[in-house]
Design goal:
Blueprint: H1 2-6, H2 10-20, H3 27-49, H4 60-88, H5 90-115, E1 126-130, E2 144-154, E3 158-162, E4 173-174, E5 178-180
Antiparallel strand pairs: 1-2, 1-5, 2-3, 3-4
Helix pairs in contact: 2-3, 2-5
Region (Disordered): 41-71
């Protein structure tokens, strides 16, 4: 944390996040605005800490009303301050959300790809084809039929098949409906 403060505080992290989101034009303005607001906030805290108490005798009612007035004024000032601050940093929040979304999507993709077994078939390979049942299927009915020979490829995952009699299918079959035939 001390390294961050020496290098410019959270402004450095903000600059990196906004550059990653492709919003480098707003980086300088936002960082300078953050620094101005931080300095103003520190000065306000110093002024409040150095405020003197009124001279004279005070009873409990005076003290409580003085404290409540101060708290009310501080609450009004801080709510105005934070509302303006939220509007100033709306673009920054969007940039951070975009960075978080990209990181989340990358993690999900990596998690999914860990479990995927890539399958490819070459021309001439023998495969089983999944049976597409229209009605009821019994427990002991076969799930695949074949073997079929791969005779063509369409796109990345679709293959044209030919049966043992040399009859070519009229449509391609997606790879999810095919299994390798081991003879």
């Amino acid at each position: 944390m001390t390294e961050l403060k020496r290098k410019g505080g959270h402004g450095v992290l903000l600059q990196q996040a906004l550059r990653a989101a492709g919003r480098s034009s707003a980086v300088g303005r936002l960082v300078s605005r953050i620094q101005q607001l931080a300095i103003r906030d520190q000065q306000t805290k110093k002024d409040q800490a150095g405020a003197r108490r009124p001279v004279g005798k005070l009873n409990n009612d005076d003290v409580s009303s003085n404290v409540s007035n101060q708290q009310e004024a501080t609450a009004q000032t801080s709510s105005w301050y934070w509302k303006g601050l939220e509007l100033d940093f709306l673009e920054e929040k969007r940039a951070r959300a975009a960075v978080r979304l990209a990181a989340y999507q990358r993690r999900m993709e990596q998690s999914y790809n860990k479990r995927v077994r890539p399958r490819k078939y070459e021309l001439g390979d023998l495969v089983w084809r999944k049976i597409q049942y229209q009605g009821d299927r019994g427990k002991l009915d076969p799930k695949y039929e074949g073997p079929y020979k791969v005779v063509g490829k369409t796109g990345i995952t679709a293959y044209y098949l030919e049966d043992a009699h040399g009859k070519r299918g009229r449509r391609p079959w997606n790879i999810i409906y095919l299994r390798k035939y081991y003879s």
